[in-house]
Amino acid sequence: MWELAGKVLVAAVAARSSWVVGKGLYTSYLGSWFGRSVKVKQLGRWAVITGATDGIGKAYAFEMARNNLNVVLISRSEERLRNVADEIASKYNVKAKTIQADFTERNIYNRIEDEISNLEIGVLVNNVGMTYDYPKEFTEVSEKLILDLFHCNILSVTMMTKIVLEKMQKRNKGLIVTLSSMGCLVPMPYLTLYGALKAYIVFFTKSLANENRSNNVIIQCHVPALVATKFSGFTKPNILVPTPMESVQSSMRTADIPVLIYRTMWFHVASQKTEVTLYLATVANFLNKWISESIMNTFANSFFGSFRSKAIARNKKMAKRETRVQQE
Ligand SMILES: NC(=O)c1ccc[n+]([C@@H]2O[C@H](COP(=O)([O-])OP(=O)(O)OC[C@H]3O[C@@H](n4cnc5c(N)ncnc54)[C@H](OP(=O)(O)O)[C@@H]3O)[C@@H](O)[C@H]2O)c1
Q1: Is the pLDDT of residue 118 over 90?
Q2: Model confidence over 129-172: pLDDT tens digits?
Q3: Which residues neighbour 40 within 8 Å (Cβ) at sequence distance 6 or greater?
Q4: Residue 317 vs residues 226, 309, 313: alpha-carbon distances, Å
């Protein structure tokens, strides 16, 4: 009796493990080898990218241009927009249009809509996002910062999607990418609003993807862990932290299959590197699925708590230094 139960358990774990590993391999590698990733060039002539002058947004802009799409870049700094647009236009021989806009403001959407209304938009990348200057308790977050976070992180995604989706539906093709974060999966104490708003993006994307099942508009959420950008504070990539382009290309490779594209730790790097990391990738994916929530909670509290303590100590040191300079 016990022997049989043991055998059933082992078989169930083996079957589940094979399913998870097989699915991970298919999603990240085999799917694209079988031509299952999105061919963005076939979706329209233009790609619109928010937060496009740096980090992940800039990598998306280059990736779209590499696929022969013209690009619309939206960010705050006119000068950086011009520089990135020139770089893209000269490297890929495509058109690069720029729109200067600050997504913490809510009255920008009529102007953006006017500026892109005549373009055949195949791809929208809702990339722009912001967080606190350092981890804070919720009660320390100012009203202005709360509104900025809501506007920049979720109103932007909602309104930009509203602007382009109807036309995509009429043309019966298109791709809308949203950017969430692993922070939507585990609690983010001291970055509470950031994690909660990223969870909105996942839920928004999942629901909208279902709503659009009957047409050919693909709606997907890219869910990275750490990526080497100014935003994350990791200036150099390493085995756990990919470059923005690695993260974007591995996400694009899985494009037409899942609604949520998780890219964490070795997994994203694995899709570009050696057989060894391929193996690690499948193990990492397996652990991701099986890790217990209480372990994740303990980890989150200690990780973000120490991140906050360090930031507070650094801020105190800087304030002291400033006072000393003023007194001298
Ligand atoms: N990096 C990571 O580890 C990581 C992990 C998970 C998720 N993400 C998500 O990925 C997205 C991009 O992050 P990133 O790391 O690439 O950031 P980044 O390197 O700091 O780049 C941010 C881009 O957005 C623009 N931007 C910032 N605030 C803006 C505003 N209020 N209005 C208009 N444009 C604005 C910036 O240009 P200007 O300053 O010129 O406006 C820049 O082009 C975010 O949604 C973030 O939450 C990042």
Answers
A1: yes
A2: 999 999 999 999 999 999 999 999 999 999 999 999 999 999 99
A3: 47, 64, 67, 69, 122, 123, 175, 252
A4: 27, 12, 6
Closest among 24, 27, 47 to 36, alpha carbons compared: 27
Name, in order, each residue with C-beta under 8 angstroms of 249's C-beta and a sequence gap of 6 or more: 63, 271, 272
243 vs 155: which has the higher pLDDT: 155
What CA–CA distance (Å, rounded) separates 174 from 43?
5
Mean pLDDT of the chain: 87
194 as an active site residue: the answer is yes
Give CA–CA dist 262/268, Å, rounded: 9
Check if the beta carbon of residue 128 is closer than 8 Å to that of residue 152.
Answer: yes
What domains can be seen in the chain, in order of their start residue?
28-291 (3.40.50.720)
Which is the catalytic residue, given 109, 190, 194, 262? Answer: 194
pLDDT band at 285 (very low <50, low <70, confident <90, very high): low
Distance 158 CA to ligand 1 centre (A): 17
Q: Rounded to the nearest whole angstrom, what is the distance from the C-alpha of residue 149 to the centroid of ligand 1?
A: 12
- Rounded Cα–Cα distance for residues 267 and 239 (Å): 10
Find out whether the beta carbon of 38 lies less than 6 Å from any atom of ligand 1.
no
Quote the pLDDT of residue 219.
93
Is the Cβ atom of 230 under 6 angstroms away from ligand 1?
Answer: yes
**Residue carrying the six token digits 């009796």:** 1
Q: Are 163 and 213 in contact (CB under 8 A)?
A: no
- The neighbour count for residue 231, using CB atoms within 10 Å, is 17
Mutation to probe ligand 1, out of 49, 50, 53, 56 (largest number of atoms < 8 A from CB)? 56
CA of 128 relative to ligand 1 center, distance in Å: 5
pLDDT for residue 228 is more than 60: yes
